[in-house]
Amino acid sequence: MGQRKASKDGDRKVGRRALLIGGTVAATGSALLARDELARLWWRVPGVEKPRKEGEVDYGGARWVAASDANWRRADRPDDYGIDMVVIHVTQGGFDSAVRAFQNPSHGAASHYIVRRDGHIAQMIRELDVAYHAGNRDYNERSVGIEHAGFVDRPQDFTDEMYEASARLTARICARYGIPVDREHIIGHVEVPGTDHTDPGPHWDWDRYLRLVREARTAPA
């Protein structure tokens, strides 16, 4: 979250592709393309929703706590938007206050996950959906956002349990989408173009974190 909450990402309800592809594809005779696109877009037709399992999580170590529908938008990632990045945030507040903020429809922002000081992880948005966490539409569409409860100027908030739990989570995300474990693909909110946020701040130990992610990535399941 950083210094202030992120704004919505300029929500595009149907993503990059228009629903007009049907006529265009039919005209060009590209039947395979039409079938592929319609498979992704059928659920975006008004009144149709893609099937979801209530309370389902993408990471087995997380507990589901739903964010407000106003703070994210439905997608079918990585089919409609490829995922190639993890964005690290710090809440600038406590775990419970962050959960309440992400459940508030007027907040305008939420991350996929929040990690508490004791290592507890809440998932608030499915990874296949676009969370409004980065303040940049392109980065929102291509990334998974992970908040860490605490303050950027309090190094004591970044506990061993938090680092280890977050690293295991990031390792699973990277494995799932083939994301390289490096600083080009695991970034801080401060590094998102156009942002005025400062998180995770100068006390976040990137060398330690990436080492833990690599260790978790290669550890036996």
Automatic annotation (TrEMBL):
SUPFAM superfamilies: N-acetylmuramoyl-L-alanine amidase-like. It is an enzyme of class 3 (hydrolase). Keywords: Cell wall biogenesis/degradation, Hydrolase. InterPro entries: Amidase/PGRP_sf, Amidase_domain, NAMLAA_amidase_2. Its EC number is 3.5.1.28. It comes from the Bacteria. GO terms for molecular function: N-acetylmuramoyl-L-alanine amidase activity. One of its GO terms (biological process) is peptidoglycan catabolic process. Residues 72-201 form the N-acetylmuramoyl-L-alanine amidase domain. It catalyses: Hydrolyzes the link between N-acetylmuramoyl residues and L-amino acid residues in certain cell-wall glycopeptides. Pfam families: Amidase_2. PANTHER family: N-ACETYLMURAMOYL-L-ALANINE AMIDASE AMID. This is N-acetylmuramoyl-L-alanine amidase. It comes from Streptomyces azureus. The lineage of its organism: Bacteria, Bacillati, Actinomycetota, Actinomycetes, Kitasatosporales.
